[in-house]
Amino acid sequence: MTKVSLITTVLDASDSVGAFLESVSWQTRPPDEVVVVDGGSTDGTLERIRSADTVTLIEQRGANIARGRNVAISAATHDVIAVTDGDCVLERDWLERLVVPLETGADVAMGFYRPLADSFLQQAIACVNLPEPEELDEATFTPSGRSVAFTRRAIDRAGGYPEWLDTGEDLYVHHRFRELGLDMRLARDAIVNWPIRRTLAETWRQYFGYARGDAIAGIDPERHALRFAVYSAGLYAWSTRGRVGKLAALAAAGATAAAPIRRALNRFEDPSERARAVVAVPALIAFIDAAKISGYLAGVRHRACPHGASRVEPA
Description:
- The chain is α/β, with parallel strands linked by helices.
- It has helices at about 15-25, 45-50, 65-75, 95-100, 100-105, 120-130, 150-160, 170-180, 200-215, 220-240, 245-265, 270-305, and strands spanning about 5-10, 35-40, 55-60, 80-85, 90, 110-115, 150, 185-195.
């Protein structure tokens, strides 16, 4: 059987790391080792991890996620590396299903994730950003660092995680995998449960940071330019006096919101919540897109003036 090293990074995760470690312990295919890198926790996270006898804990104060993952990969003793986040809860068969593509010759196995959402807001945000597994296209899907596995050779060829990126480091690596022409296969039934941000402010910071990282790393400039162009054109069309422009803007907005609204209609069972979601989801799409546009512009500014704009954070 293929030996697998499971790695993750944590920072002040005392509220979530216990559930994560428990979900690791109940895997139907247990990892052969677990390596956790802590970036300098002060909230009791270290004590919780030390209580798990099967975990190798490495303290790396001040390390960002990319640095932490690189340290964990270097410390891992096996040639298959599974990666997730320390605030996720793994389905019992996550690792068992995730390693199947690698055992049949793939370089990268791309797992998936479901939302951990309690409130209406969290569930509505999940409808915007988390598609159903059947919506995924293996040829274009970009995995997340919360549910992915790869061979050591693959990550070495990619150059490891970019330690100069504080956010979006996993997206950068996975784009490198595509550029290198590696064999990337979808394991859509390898599921982790991922906590959705609880407030609009947290959601704004999250997507601002993602987009800022994209700009700094030069990832997907066409996609971000298209988003900016679509909203600019929509605002211009809405500002005109003619009805045609307004109808075109509404049609474009409806097309953008169609899939998230369909998810909301499927996921919300209560009729009143469904009705609320039909209104909330389009508003959340615009809100998250505004965070992405703002973050990308901040990242462009950082690239133009890296010393004066280091580590820009949203207000």
